[in-house]
Amino acid sequence: MESAFKELGEKASVLDFDPKSAVVGGGVEDIYGEDTATEDQLVTPWTYSVASGYSLLRDPQYNKGLAFTEKERDAHYLRGLLPPATCSQQLQEKKLMNTIRQYQVPLQKYMALTELQERNERLFYKLLIDNVEELLPIVYTPTVGEACQKFGSIFRRPQGLYISLKEKGKVLEVLKNWPERTVQVIVVTDGERILGLGDLGCQGMGIPVGKLALYTALGGVRPSACLPITIDVGTNNKQLLEDEFYIGLRQKRTTGKEYADLLDEFMSAVKQNYGEKVVIQFEDFANHNAFQLLEKYRRTHLVFNDDIQGTAAVVLAGVVAALRLVGGSLSEHKFLFLGAGEAGTGIAELIALEISQKTKTPVEETRKKIWLVDSKGLIVSSRKDSLQQFKKPWAHEHEPIDNLLDAVKAIKPTVLIGSSGVGRTFTKEVIEAVSSFNEKPLILALSNPTSQSECTAEEAYTWSKGRTIFASGSPFDPVEYNGKVYVPGQSNNAYIFPGFGLGLVISGAIRVHNDMLLAACK
Length: 522
What we know:
Elements: H1 2-10, H2 46-49, H3 53-56, H4 70-75, H5 89-102, H6 106-119, H7 121-130, H8 132-139, H9 143-149, H10 151-154, E1 161-164, H11 171-176, E2 185-189, H12 206-217, E3 226-232, H13 238-241, H14 256-274, E4 279-282, H15 287-297, E5 303-305, H16 306-326, E6 335-338, H17 342-359, H18 363-366, E7 370-374, E8 377-378, H19 404-411, E9 415-418, H20 428-436, E10 442-445, H21 457-463, E11 469-472, E12 479-481, E13 484-486, E14 489-490, H22 497-507, H23 514-521
């Protein structure tokens, strides 16, 4: 090096310096061959390649593991950083599926897939797309419910953004910390009502992550255009607050003005940072907030509540499809719901809207074909003063009934729908009662995960003597009854929201309307 500088000193100009005379390569010599780059000789710009090779293998968006070809290993400075063998993506997929199938516990499969997503995004989605029927119950309900419950213990690497009360006043700055500038779909939760499991606080992040994995696998939205967000305002789950591994704010859940202000700041910041056309999907908010937020922002943002609108769309689609077996038109059927929260009232409203459009009857009239039972019994007009606002349209004239079985006997529904979040509430007596006045009763046990389902597929088929048309929110195995095998349907939002969200993105919509939901049903 000393001789090199000595030689430089004797030259007229630095431009005359011959870098090849130096012991250490550098200067302006074309070390990386950039000046001689051709289509056959790929070259990574020096400014990026300094961080490429080693860092590239640790970037899930670009890492391909052993699937990097010989040419790519030269171009991206990966020589020596990988074993010499090359391996196709198909072989990688085969190896990983063999590994995953060896796990006996669903949560282990979930953790293996999460680790893959954090390491090799392309392979993760290839695996999910090619094996969707097998892996859907792992990345989505029911396994994602258990994952959320144990999220603090299995947490390894953050996915998405966590916006807590600590970030109040700085939400826009937090959004700018996300590396992707073009975001098309956001799934956001505050973790207060995760599936049928209740308040899981910050650990509800498993839901937005799982939903957005399906946006890519089933809807084709680019992973980099998806952003999962959890808004952490505390939790009222005492067990979590006392859990040393809990990853969220250790305080009781904030409500009222402070909560509303944080949500308002978040919604404004999203619009400011990502524009008018970003889809914001509300997920697993508690009833009292879900309806208010949807009503507040549906006229100013491209918002969509999957629990209210997505569930409604997929259930209506299922009911309409089942009419081919049950017979009759939608308006000829009578509906009874167990559960009058987001899902129950959302489904009921969309069914009433569809009947209204088909029969040219006011929706106020078509609602009278639909009855709801909540924790206090049948919703009737004498209870109207004590009901929450979103339940009032379903308060019809009838004598009070305080339990589901008596409501079934009195209303005589042709369609029984469960969205209560309470397991085993469709008892043998209830299903036998529905079956007694219907040749083919339509029974939908929608609550998730499997443990919260109103009944199992086996119970529904056995107690109805094989006559029911059955579907559930979480998957059930086929059931054999009297020598015949029955395959239960799955009435799950996964059939609607990925395509619905994609439709909003590619159509350039700026608001969600009920006609869009009805179109998605069809």
